Amino acid sequence: MCYNSIMNNILEEKILPNVMKPARYVGNELNAVHKDWDKTPIRVCLTYPDTYEIGMSNIGIQILYYILNQGPDVLAERVFAPWPDMEEQLISNNLPLFSLESRKPLDQFDLLGISLGHELTYTNIVNMLSLGNIPVRAKDRRDKDPLVMGGGPCVFNPTPVEAFFDFFVIGEAEEILPEMVDLFRKSKGENRELKIGELAKIPGIYVPSLKNKVKKRFIKDFSNTPYPTKPIIPFIEAVHDRAVVEVMRGCKWGCKFCQAGWTTRPVRERQMDKVIELADQILKNTGYEELSLVSLSTSDYSKISELARTLARKYEKKRINMSLPSMRTNTFSVELAKDVSRVRPSSVTLAPEAGTQRLRDVIGKQMSEEDILQGVSAAFTAGMSAIKLYFMIGLPTETDEDLLGICQLAKKILSIGRTKTKRARVTVNLATFIPKPHTPLQWERQITIEETLAKQHLIKDNLKVRNLDVRWHQAEASFLEGVFARGDQKLAAVIEAAWQLGCRLDAWSEHLKFDLWQKAFAECRIDPHDYLKALDPKAPLAWDFIDTGIPKEVLLRAANQG
Amino acid sequence: MQRIKVKYTKGEAVKYISHRDLMRTFQRAIRRAELPMAYSQGFNPHMKISWGQALKVGATSSGEEAILQIDGWLKPAELMAKLNEKLPLGIEIVDASVV
Ligand code: SF4
Predict the structure, then answer these.
(1) Distance between CA B74 and CA B4 in Å, rounded?
(2) Domain count of chain A?
(3) Are residues A249 and A379 in the same domain?
(4) Would you state the pLDDT for residue A316?
């Protein structure tokens, strides 16, 4: 019996019947691509290193999967982080972590592509490499091992995890992929160093072992860039389970804290006819009941009202609902609100980020209270009843007055809602401000866990109102996120130590073991608080070798405005 | 209005899908097949389907049942053919009849 059938037997007989949500590990979804392993020379495995439900909500993975599988000599498969029960089963049955499509162990691929979407997935990366029989550190890998590639938002400071990667794609991958595949075609069978050296010549690729300077890649012709019209439809409900059309890249606002805003420039729109064409095809190929037009700030799309109206009217008969995440209220009219809730009432999400005008000015969030109240009122008038508000705590120069401003604003919004509907409901989400690389606020300090808890309490104590819910980020999680966001190469040892101590799935509050993280820092003799301090604008930064197209002086100047 | 009872299989490829997920998968196939379904009224309209007993996760079956309410009129054989074209591997309608 060959290896694969032994593995299949163990899986079917012993493992799958005994784990939670076995469908996470089975694949076979509609639109998944199954190619002949033996007849396809270039084999890539893609992952977002968290559970299936989280990973499958990531459009980045779907885009790369689609583009790679277009190549007749390339196969792209998927793998996600196992839940602890599955990990235990794999280890006790002596099975490696395997891909969903061909059930091949990770070490049999040529390339493993890992999306770095969140700092709290870093232990999962180490865990998945280890379970997949790939040496965790890049320096220990041999010619037969896959090359391990990183991409996604966190690569704008890859230094904390660079020991685990052979190379990184900095910026947008769509145009790099074909160049990379071409290189794989030519260098099949060559040794590792040679391949890595060649990769470093591709603009936008950073190779840690060569320490090359790198300039971010971005696509110029966004409208004509390939986009998956047959996305995989998960059987189990993913976090975002809907048809998604990306309508725009970049954001014109330049809020000082926003890493996505500063690293995804320039702003590029997909032409309206292309958006409509994509929406048509995706809905036809998936049968989804909801269509979401996504971007960092969808209301800035130049023809948003026309687009929303066209799509809403077109799909109302088919009972397809539309959602427009990331709206700004100043462009949110009653008409637009009505268009998006034709089929089912939807909710509105707004991010004032700070509770007072003064602080919004400090952080460069150009949103006035008038705009906010007007937009909210439009939403309630159109029949929406739920408003979600996003704020940050711990922003530079923040005082209690700013925090109480959050409470006042939320209450004002709720009372506007109450004049329109009995069902009015407001949710306040509190995130801790994390200074992120390549933003004007990258030199600021991050508040401590104690300060975070005190600020959260102040707000909660002042928002005990019916139909007003407060949610907050776990202070320990924000602490770790901050450490790794502005971390450096020394932290790889901490990540490995934390993983060895048993840290996994740290983005899940029920799994985050902060005491083990503290132990890991202590073992490595690293004080994590050092990474949360204010930085000297004249001193070099760990991520200076990455050129996002925006010089440091521009960030500094922006920091000092307002 | 017309009610069509379908008998379908839940095969190896989908045996680990929960009943809830199976229902959603079915509804999406119906949408892809563009069948003229009847919908409920109200705030959150949904397709009118009555489902048989939920099958245990991990079990396969050759005869699960559901009743689809059609808005208009459709030949059961046509419904079966259209739907089978759109259902994922492992789920297949083996019989359809007006009830
Ligand atoms: S916070 Fe929103 S509006 Fe501001 S730059 Fe970022 S994406 Fe744009």
Answers:
(1) 9
(2) 3
(3) no
(4) 87
Q: What angle do CA B18, B23, B24 make, to 5 degrees?
A: 100
Domain with residue A304: its CATH number is 3.30.750.210
* B54: contact with A, CB 8 A cutoff: no
- C-beta of A297 in contact with ligand 1 (< 6 A): yes
pLDDT of residue A337: 73
Average pLDDT for A474-485: 98
The reply to whether ligand 1 has any atom less than 6 angstroms from the CB of A296 is yes
CATH T-level assignment (fold) for domain B2-98: Alpha-Beta Plaits (3.30.70)
Cα(A253) to centroid(ligand 1), Å: 6
Let me know whether A93 and A204 are in one domain.
yes
How confident is the model at residue A332, as a pLDDT? 65
- Structure pTM? 0.95
Q: Do B89 and A28 touch (CB under 8 A)?
A: yes
- 3-state secondary structure at position A493: helix
Indicate the domain borders of chain B. Answer: 2-98
Q: Whose CA is nearest to atom 4 of ligand 1?
A: A255
* Residue in A450, A405, A417, A420 with CA at minimum distance from that of residue A432: A450
Range(s) of the domain holding residue A280: 242-340
The predicted pLDDT at position A328 comes to 65
Residues A351, A435 share a domain? yes
Tens digit of each residue's pLDDT (9 = 90 or more) over A380-409? 888 888 899 999 999 999 999 999 999 999
A267 shares a domain with A208: no
Nearest CA in chain B to A237: B21
Q: Which of A252, A257, A297, A391 to mutate to test the pocket of ligand 1 (most atoms within 8 A of CB)?
A: A297
Token digits of residue B24: 């959603």
Lowest mean pLDDT among A168-182, A276-290, B33-47, B75-89: B33-47
Position A123 pLDDT exceeds 90: yes
pLDDT at B36 over 70: yes
Q: B36 — contact with chain A (CB < 8 Å)? A: no
Give the domain-ending residue among A215, A234, A250. Answer: A215
Residues A193 and A273 in one domain: no
Alpha-helix runs per DSSP H in A264-302: 272-286
The mean pLDDT value for A227-253 works out to: 92
A251 Cα–ligand 1 center, Å:
6
* Tokens, residue A527: 């004080």
CB nearest to B16's CB, from A23, A233, A287:
A23
Chain B within 8 Å of A288 (Cβ-Cβ)? Answer: yes
How far apart CA A267 and CA A247 sit, in angstroms, is: 11
Q: Closest Cα to residue A404, out of A458, A449, A361?
A: A458
- CATH number of the domain within which A453 lies: 3.30.750.200
